């Protein structure tokens, strides 16, 4: 049939000139770079640009429904390169919507340009400076505040209220920001910090001021935890140590500013002015955070599962959060009030500690059954993260044992004034600042985590032993050095532990891992103060009973236990006896810091930590 007749070569050549095998001339084409966008990812591809004559030929070819059998496709067509698939791994820059630079300085950051990162991170650093200025400001201003309200016996509640909320709610920020995204939670924390700082400045009673400090702790805790979470979201783990060093530096700056200028501000403009002066800086901090923080940061789960706001709220571990907050609150109240405000046998202290233990058992059993637990039990049950977190807890006890009791050594044993004892601790402040900043750069350069962790652990152990050797005859310079060893260890170990926990966690676990580590570090701080106070007070009572003599023995013991300043007013005999008793009690207390440092070392020496990529 005519419809089935196979065309001859000449007919085929006439109808499809591009298939002419007799006078074929290979078409020329030029490769140029072009850009396509697929699924929001920019990719560079190679495209083919043809001449107008060749373009018309291709149009003619496109009209042929099929290539007749027996004819070969023009060989030159086989050389036309096909467009490669877009690079799905290209790093997207949300600002410019173009491929990120995977090499050089920009490779340090995740999904953000260097300029955008520094705008965000600059706000984070600003928050740390303000937050630590506020916390250390209370150390110098609380006597003035309690005297203003005629409530000196309530001084301990100023720090207790702040510590309760800043610690108890810490893990919630990680999980809630995983649910709703980083930006709204971050801005909420800053707004609470601003409002409660204003409340502190305008409080009209001691009860109102304590309540303000409690809510201020909630805001400050959110600022600190969200700052760490944002850093882990935006910086690759290989370079996290460097930026952790910047954070540590700002912590030192904020703390020093609070100690240095807190008293001056209170003396010049009053204690209310010390809070009012923070408000403009917090407001600017809020504006910077609102402007620079990406709105979609941390929204991975909400986007992937397309959950509504109500579904997101229901997905939060509300019962677990309540149990955790209640447990931590009861524990901190018992530890902070016992031996400080009330005796350890007081019903409130005992009931608080028992309640925290019971709730802790219930919390652990419940969290094992929850899909998205506020504190995943695997963090506390599987190495290496469990050893890192608990070692961090023991290290925090050791550090705070030293920090809390070192001023007492200079005032009670060396008879220095509070101002002089503070100046003698400057060396320790410099030690922790220098070592913490250096640690970040060492981790980034070596790509190794364990060496700096172990160095810090050993220094904490040696620092406790060195301080335990101090007595009345120890020169001031040597005493300052002994106290600084533990601070040096803190600077090496704590930043390393933070990076280690993040390096051993998946990306979607890093927020809750960060806040869990912070929670146990804060609990260690409370335990350090509570346990060292208990050890010191009981040892001091024993030593005073053994060393103080004479008919005025009981009166002298009662006097020097109430006020350290009373030691300088004693007669030479009793003064020497009391100083010897204080020195002996402090040696035992500092030795306990060495024991906690040893526990920290044992927790960390047996674990293996990953290396952060390949050393450049």
UniProtKB/TrEMBL annotation:
Domain Major facilitator superfamily (MFS) profile: start-end pairs: 120-612
Signal peptide residue numbers: none
Annotated segments matching region Disordered: 1-32, 70-97
Family matches, as InterPro entries: MFS, MFS_dom, MFS_trans_sf
GO annotation, cellular component aspect: fungal-type vacuole membrane
Location(s) in or outside the cell: Membrane
Keyword list, A-Z: Membrane, Transmembrane, Transmembrane helix
SUPFAM superfamilies xrefs: MFS general substrate transporter
GO molecular function terms noted in the UniProt entry: basic amino acid transmembrane transporter activity
Main localization category: membrane
Transmembrane segments: 117-135, 155-173, 185-204, 210-234, 246-265, 277-297, 318-338, 344-366, 387-410, 422-445, 579-602
Membrane topology classification: Multi-pass membrane protein
The protein's name: Major facilitator superfamily (MFS) profile domain-containing protein
Natural source organism: Aspergillus nanangensis
Organism ancestry: Eukaryota, Fungi, Dikarya, Ascomycota, Pezizomycotina
């Amino acid at each position: 049939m005519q419809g089935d007749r196979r065309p001859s070569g000449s007919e085929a050549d006439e109808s499809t000139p591009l298939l002419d095998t007799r006078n074929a001339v290979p078409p020329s084409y030029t490769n140029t770079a072009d850009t396509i966008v697929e699924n929001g990812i920019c990719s560079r591809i190679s495209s083919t640009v043809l001449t107008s004559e060749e373009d018309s030929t291709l149009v003619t070819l496109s009209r042929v429904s099929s290539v007749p059998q027996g004819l070969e496709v023009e060989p030159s067509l086989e050389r036309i390169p096909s467009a490669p698939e877009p690079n799905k791994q290209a790093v997207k820059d949300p600002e410019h919507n173009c491929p990120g630079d995977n090499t050089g300085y920009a490779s340090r950051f995740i999904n953000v340009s260097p300029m955008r990162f520094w705008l965000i991170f600059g706000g984070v650093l600003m928050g740390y400076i303000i937050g630590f200025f506020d916390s250390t400001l209370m150390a110098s201003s609380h006597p003035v505040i309690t005297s203003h309200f005629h409530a000196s016996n309530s001084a301990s509640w100023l720090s207790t209220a702040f510590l309760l909320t800043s610690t108890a709610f810490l893990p919630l920020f990680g999980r809630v920001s995983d649910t709703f995204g980083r930006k709204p939670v971050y801005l909420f924390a800053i707004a609470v910090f601003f409002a409660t700082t204003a409340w502190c400045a305008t409080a009209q009673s001691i009860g109102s001021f304590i309540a303000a400090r409690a809510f201020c702790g909630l805001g400050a805790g959110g600022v600190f935890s969200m700052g760490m979470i944002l850093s882990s979201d935006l910086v690759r783990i290989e370079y996290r140590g460097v930026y952790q060093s910047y954070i540590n530096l700002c912590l030192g700056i904020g703390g020093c500013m609070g100690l240095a200028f807190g008293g001056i501000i209170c003396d010049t403009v009053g204690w209310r002015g010390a809070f009012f002066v923070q408000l403009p800086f917090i407001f600017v901090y809020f504006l910077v955070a609102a402007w620079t923080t990406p709105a979609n940061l941390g929204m991975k789960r909400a986007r992937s599962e397309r959950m509504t706001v109500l579904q997101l709220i229901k997905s939060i571990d509300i019962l677990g959060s309540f149990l955790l907050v209640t447990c931590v609150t009861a524990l901190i109240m018992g530890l902070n009030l016992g031996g400080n405000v009330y005796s350890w046998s007081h019903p409130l202290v005992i009931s608080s500690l028992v309640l925290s233990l019971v709730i802790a058992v219930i919390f652990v059993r419940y969290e094992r059954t929850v899909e998205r637990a506020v504190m995943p039990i695997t963090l506390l049950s599987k190495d290496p993260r469990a050893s890192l977190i608990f070692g961090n807890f023991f290290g925090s006890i050791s550090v705070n044992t030293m920090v809390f009791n070192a001023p007492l050594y200079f005032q009670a044993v060396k008879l220095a004034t509070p101002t002089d004892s503070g100046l003698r601790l400057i060396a320790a402040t410099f030690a922790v600042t220098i070592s913490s900043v250096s640690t970040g750069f060492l981790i980034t350069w070596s790509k190794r985590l364990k060496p700096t962790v172990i160095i810090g652990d050993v220094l904490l152990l040696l620092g406790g032993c060195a301080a335990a050797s101090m007595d009345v005859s120890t020169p001031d310079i040597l005493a300052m050095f002994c106290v600084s060893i533990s601070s040096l260890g803190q600077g090496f170990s704590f930043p390393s532990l933070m990076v280690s926990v993040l390096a051993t966690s998946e990306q979607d676990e890093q927020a809750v891992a960060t806040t869990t580590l912070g929670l146990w570090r804060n609990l260690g701080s409370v335990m350090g103060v509570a346990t060292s106070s208990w050890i010191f007070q009981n040892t001091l009572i024993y030593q005073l009973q053994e060393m103080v003599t004479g008919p005025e023995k009981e009166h002298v013991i009662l006097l020097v236990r109430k006020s350290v300043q009373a030691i300088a007013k004693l007669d030479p005999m009793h003064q020497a006896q009391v100083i010897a008793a204080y020195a002996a009690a402090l040696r035992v207390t500092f030795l306990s810091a060495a024991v906690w440092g040893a526990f920290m070392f044992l927790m960390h020496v047996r674990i293996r930590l990953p290396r952060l990529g390949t050393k450049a």
